[in-house]
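Appendix B.2, paired examples.
Example (i):
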Amino acid sequence: MAETTEKLASSKEMDGIRKAAIFMISLGPETSAQIMKQLPDKFIQKVSYEIANIDHVSQKEREDIINEYLEMSQAREYILDGGFDYAKTLLNKALGTQRAKEVIDMLNQIQLRERPFNIARKADPAQLTNLLLGEQPQTVALILCYMQPDKAAQILINFPPEKQSEIAERIGTITSTSPAVIEKIEKVIESKFSTYIENDTENVGGVSTLVEILNQVGRTTEKAIVGELEERQPELAEEVKASLFTFEDIISLQKSDVQKVLREVSNDDLVLALKGVSDELRDFIFDNLSTRAVETLKEDMQFMGPARLSAVEEAQQNVVTVIRRLDEYGEIYIMRGDQDAIIE
């Protein structure tokens, strides 16, 4: 009993980031790298910092954290299979009453539950579209915020143009939603949707969500929606346009289109924009320049020295502005979700 109490106290003192860092160390670099690719950038930064600052991990720490992970994973499967009561019964048999209670309590603390509108995410897009066509724009916007961007795009393009822009505006301006709002909407459509209700405020929507959806709907629909946004909310429209294509996305363009872009970009902007980018992206740019231009660019980059991040980002955005302008005029082609292929 004393050993269990000591173990629990030790576990509580160790925060989640440290646990994650030790768990990654225990898994080894190859497996950890694959897991890290699936994590949010902010979490990757925190875990990476913690890993870098861990000098030593005892065998006991490793074993405790791995065992905790296995227990939590097992408990999660039980909950998803049959709910908390079912999980408690099986965990009591597997771990004993005390440890089962500890695991369930930890699951409650980290709120291990499905996101709202889970059935909507699994539903057939055509059926879901028919269901949502009669709903208010604010209702549709909230539901789309919780859906996969590609499926949300499939649904959005089936709405009339005026409703598309209104729904898009609402998605772009949502920053958070409360359990009461979610519950109210779910009750309105409870005969069609049955999903688990979140009890805590959750960040949904916003510009990033809208951009992910717009990147899937195709250029024609995108232009119509952004055009309406420019009239309704110019600042939101500018933020959306700036996010629709990033500097790193230049690697997705055809070589001939990249060369057109580079002819429009000043050397000063290009030198700054290439500061700190990946070798792959830098080589891609060099491959689309003449040998002499590459040599000049490398010399300028070498003698430039350190540059402020804000200056680099501004230069990259200047390049993106050129790309967006050429795309707008039909001089280059940015691949989007539902556009036809180019015929040579």
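Example (ii):
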Amino acid sequence: MMSAPVDLRNASSGAGKSTTVDAQIDPVAIPPMPDYNGRTLAYTATAAIITSGVFQGIFPDWMLWLIAGALTWPHIAHILTRRTFLRHSPRIRQKMLIVDCLIGGGFVGAIGVVAIPSVSVMLMLMFSCLIIGGFRQWVFGSVFMTASLFIGLAIFGPAESFQAPLITSILSLLATGLYICVTAFYSHQQARALMMAKTQIQNQREQSIALSHKLSKYLSPQVWQSIFTGERDVRLETQRKKLAIFFSDIKGFTELSEEMEPEALTELLNHYFNGMSEVALKYGGTIDKFVGDSIMVFFGDPTSRGQREDAFACVSMAIEMRKHMKIMRQKWRSQGIKTPLEIRMGISTGYTTVGNFGAENRMDYTIIGKEVNLASRLESLADPGEILVSYETFSLIKDRIMCRDKGEITVKGFGKPVPIYEVVDFRRDMGPNRSFLEHEHSGFAMYLDSEKISERERQAILTALEDAADRLRQEEEIR
């Protein structure tokens, strides 16, 4: 007299969710119990109750005709919901269950509310309402069932006795128990299926996350983030933007590559790229590519803090890279690499074309334009340890970074000579109150950034400096 609440395809309220779950479950391994089977079981149980009641004389003989209706209705309902326009109706299962509640309530009223058979039919209805539609469906089902019950009771009147014979009562309870047990079993199976699907979906999600993190190693974090959050489509498209472009390479790397074994050279280069990449990401730079010993980074896309801040972040990154190179050089020297490797850098700011270049099946997120060529030219003109910037960059950073005029150069693509400047240091780090100090000689190297030193580290550094000073004084006295 009602539909089974265990069709997995309708277990999720959202179409997208149901599609995901269906894709994870083997329908052969966990067979669903569709509405048709559940309704057939319920109405067959009701037909058995009617047959027993008529033959025991508690139901009128004309109710034998209801047996045919009880055995026919599930097939009619199946045709209506699967092969007619009703199949497109939203929440069709809940609507058909309301019809079942109307029929069930009318039947209970027609038999005069005989206790055990009436309770059995009402239990099957309420059980289905709660599982299929929850409390809301239970309320609606109860209202419609009660209404049809009173209508039937008004037409046929109450039974002479509300007590049913023993056989009819036992049969009613067995039929109801069988229906509840069967539907509960399939509900349990479907619940297990949903849990398995949830577990599989979670595993696939974790695998996808792990894979995406692996793929992110081949993309700049900003680009990867914009793609995986849906902010940027993966298609061939470009746009014009004003960016700060950075180029660097290692002076003396070619000579070093002739002296070192390929394995050791690869380890050194990876160590260098790793350290410089950390600095670039710290300042929000988009790492474009590594070519040989060169690094290309740009600021202003896919995220930007404004032209002035982008340029300042780019030059700040270059200054820290220059400082970081001193630390790396000391480490390489301790490993037996005596060639004095120096980094040289060039920075320009201007409008470039940025976006995805290439083919539909192989893209590269990069930038092109004359400003890119200018940054590369500045890098090639820089002396070891020098940072050269264009006039556009200088005009954006000069309030916070000290620069020295280096004259003009002629660059292909520019109609006039281009003024260039050498970056000296942060203005805050110049003068007697500067936070950064460095000295490097044969057998001695010192790199000090007082702003980054904690109180605990400060004492250890002072102790080490005092020990070093005492040692030098002792050797001086001996001489």
